[in-house]
Structure formats: C-alpha cells, structure tokens
C-alpha cells in the first residue's frame, strides 16, 4: 500500500491494527477521537478495551473464527468509549498475510454510524407507540359498539319515556319516528369514525420519508400529529355514544374552537380545497363542543364529495360567523358556503330526512345531515337550514348565544 493511499484511508476512516492475539499495535487520530483514549493508552492494550459489555460472547466467537480462517469480517459493532458512551461503528476487519501466507496482523477500518442507529431506534420506538395507540382505539371502538347495541335494545323504552315528559305530543311523535333508527345510526357513526384511521398510513409514510432524510423535527411533528388525531377521534366517538344521555355535561364554549377542531381533523382530506375562515372569538354557546365539530365536519365532507361528483376545478369553502338578533334574542350565525353546484330543486325538501342520499350506497348512509340537524336542534337548541346560493350550497346554523359566558 502506497503512503498516499494509506494516508487517505487513515484521514477518512477510523483505523486500528492488532497483532494475531488482538493486542493493539496502531491506531489513527480518528480512533482516538471517537474512543476517548490517547495513543499511549491504547497501544499495547487488548482490543477488548473498547468492547461494550452488552455484546454476547457468541459475536466474538464468530469474529475470531472468521478472521483466523483468513476471511474478512464485516458487522455494525457496538463499542464503549472511555467516558462510558455507546457508539456504533460499521466495521471491516481484514487479516494481513505474510509471504508464507500466514496471518501477520489484523487491520480494522470503521466509520461512525451512531447517529443513524439512534435515529432508527427512536423511529422504531415511536412506531411501537403508534401501534399501541391504534390497538387502544380499536378496543375503545369495540367497547362503544357494545354500548350502542345495548342502547338500541332499550331505544323504544327511551322514546316512550321522552314522550311522557314532553307536552308537545305532535312534535314528540315526529321525533319518535326518527329516533326509531337511532341504534343503526349510531352504529354507522362508530363505523365511519374508524375509517379516518387510514390517514395514519400517510402519516407513517411521511414519517419514514423524513427519517430517511434525517429530518428529526419533521418526524417528531408527524408523530405528535398522529397522537392528536387518534385522541380526538376517540373523544368524538365517546361524545356520540353519550348523545342521548340526559346526564351528559353541557358547557359554555367558543364556536371558534369547534371550527378549529373540525379543520384539524379534516386537514389531510381537504387537499386542493381552499377554506376561507372568518370566525372571531366571543361567540360562546352552551352544549358539547365535539358535537358541533361533528356537524361542521359533515357539512364540509358533503361539499368535498360534491366537488368530486361535479368535477369542480377551483374549490372554495367559506366559513363565516356573525351575530343575529331574532325576536329580541341574540344568536350566533355560522354560515358554511361552497361553490360545488348546489342541490337539485327536487331534493331540497328531502336533504334532512333520514336515509336520504344522492350518493352511492357504499359512499353514504343518508344519516349525516339528519344527525347534524338533531344535534343543532336537540342538543344546542338551535336551527340548521340550507339554501342554494350563487353557484353552491349555503348551510346556516343558528345557536342561542350564552350571554353569561
């Protein structure tokens, strides 16, 4: 080996030599730098000085069997530095033979892969955590499905009890006919909320991509995004399960928070849809925040489906919030408008009916707008209405303002 070639190897790699018994006879500056030992501390010592205690003896048996048979040994080796730090080195150990074809010494050339190994370990740990979160969510869905089935069994009794409490008999008869389908409706909602789990596939793909690009910040961001999505979905399922529970807690909340929560959940599916949001603070109402979020999600998803069905190129959804006074009572007026073509005139009077849908059966159950109207009217004591406006649909939600805040 020429001197120039030897210098090039020593300057770009971590190099050491040992005699046939494993005693160090040479180390370069890079070896000293990564191990923390000086030349004087290493020369004459057994190469075990940098051995990590976690490495099983079988690894070293394989190493010596290989190199004593005059074959090179290649592996990613875990070493321990002088100050107790763990490093990982891609290592190639080559026997050097004399003129009699006998082993004269061993030369080891290494390069540092500690950062890559640690990144891989962190990613594997996070993937395991995500898998555990997925399993937990599946268990929650299974548990809530059982509760829904029990709710369906006692649905008729619940309707009868509600009729006895309400003085407006005609209105109650109307709700009785709609509540008869509640069990199936809630089961469908539980099923539909499991579908957004597929969004995690995209997140994991991007996480893997950012890992390969050594983008730790992006990897952590995607990991947190997945956890937030899963927890939000789980919370929403529980809220729907408790929808007709008279003991559920209603609280004062900002409508802006419900809008923001809905847009976070829909972030991955909006794609090329431009969403213009004109929603201010200080519009507080009383109810369950996640229920209003679910209404907003359903209305935006309907717009998304309409864009696809009508082949609309420039897609714009506008969300506006204002105050309106009706009969000396103040209301929050939330308007969600799209430019997806609107609804056919012959269907305008049917869109809030249960099981009415213009989509294929595989794409919708016809329960989304029916459920949304129930939430607004029964839970938030407001109104939900629709009209075709300009080149699309305009949904208007009126909810009494909580002036006591």
What features would you describe in this structure?
The chain has 405 residues and is α+β, with helices and mostly antiparallel strands. It folds into three domains: 3-112, Beta-Lactamase (2-Layer Sandwich); 114-248; 249-405, Heat Shock Protein 90. The protein has helices at residues 3-12, 29-35, 39-42, 57-68, 114-153, 155-165, 169-179, 182-194, 199-212, 216-241, 255-265, 267-270, 289-310, 368-379; strands spanning 14-18, 24-27, 73-80, 86-97, 103-112, 251-254, 273-278, 284-287, 315-326, 329-338, 383-389, 392-400. The strands form three sheets. Strands 2-1-5-4-3 form a five-stranded antiparallel beta sheet, sandwiched between helices. The longest helix is centred in the first third of the chain and has 40 residues, at 114-153. It is elongated, with a radius of gyration of 33 Å.
């Amino acid at each position: 080996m020429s001197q120039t070639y030897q210098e090039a190897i020593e300057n770009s790699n971590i190099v050491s030599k040992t005699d046939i018994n494993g005693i160090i006879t040479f180390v370069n500056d890079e070896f000293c730098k990564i191990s923390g030992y000086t030349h004087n501390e290493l020369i004459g010592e057994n190469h075990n000085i940098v051995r990590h205690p976690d490495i099983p003896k079988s690894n070293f048996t394989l190493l010596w069997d290989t190199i004593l048979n005059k074959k090179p040994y290649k592996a990613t080796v875990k070493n321990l530095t002088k100050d107790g730090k763990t490093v990982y080195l891609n290592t190639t150990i080559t026997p050097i033979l004399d003129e009699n074809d006998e082993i004269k010494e061993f030369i080891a050339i290494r390069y540092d892969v500690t950062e890559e190994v640690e990144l891989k370990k962190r990613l594997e740990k996070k993937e395991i955590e995500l898998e555990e979160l997925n399993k937990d969510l599946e268990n929650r869905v299974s548990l809530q499905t059982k509760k829904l089935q029990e709710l369906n069994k006692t649905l008729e009794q619940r309707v009868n009890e509600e009729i006895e409490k309400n003085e407006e008999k005609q209105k109650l008869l109307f709700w009785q006919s709609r509540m008869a389908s509640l069990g199936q409706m809630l089961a469908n909602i539980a099923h539909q909320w499991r579908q957004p789990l597929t969004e995690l596939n995209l997140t994991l793909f991007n996480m893997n991509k950012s890992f390969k690009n050594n983008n730790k910040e992006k990897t952590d961001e995607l990991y947190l995004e997945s956890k937030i999505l899963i927890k939000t979905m789980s919370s929403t399922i529980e809220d729907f399960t408790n929808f007709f529970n008279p003991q559920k807690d209603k609280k004062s909340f900002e409508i802006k928070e419900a809008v923001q929560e809905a847009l976070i959940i829909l972030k991955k599916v909006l794609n090329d849809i431009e969403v213009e949001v004109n929603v201010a603070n200080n519009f507080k109402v009383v109810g369950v925040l996640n229920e209003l979020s679910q209404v907003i999600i359903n209305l935006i998803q309907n717009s998304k489906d309409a864009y696809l069905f009508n082949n609309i190129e420039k897609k714009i959804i506008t969300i506006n919030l204002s105050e309106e006074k009706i009969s000396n009572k103040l209301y929050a007026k939330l308007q969600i408008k799209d430019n997806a073509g609107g609804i056919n005139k012959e269907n305008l009077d049917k869109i809030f009916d249960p099981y009415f849908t213009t989509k294929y059966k595989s794409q919708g159950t016809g329960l989304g707008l029916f459920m949304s109207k129930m939430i607004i009217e029964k839970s938030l004591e407001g109104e939900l209405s629709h009209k075709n406006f300009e080149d699309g649909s305009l949904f208007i939600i009126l909810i009494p303002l909580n002036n006591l805040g």
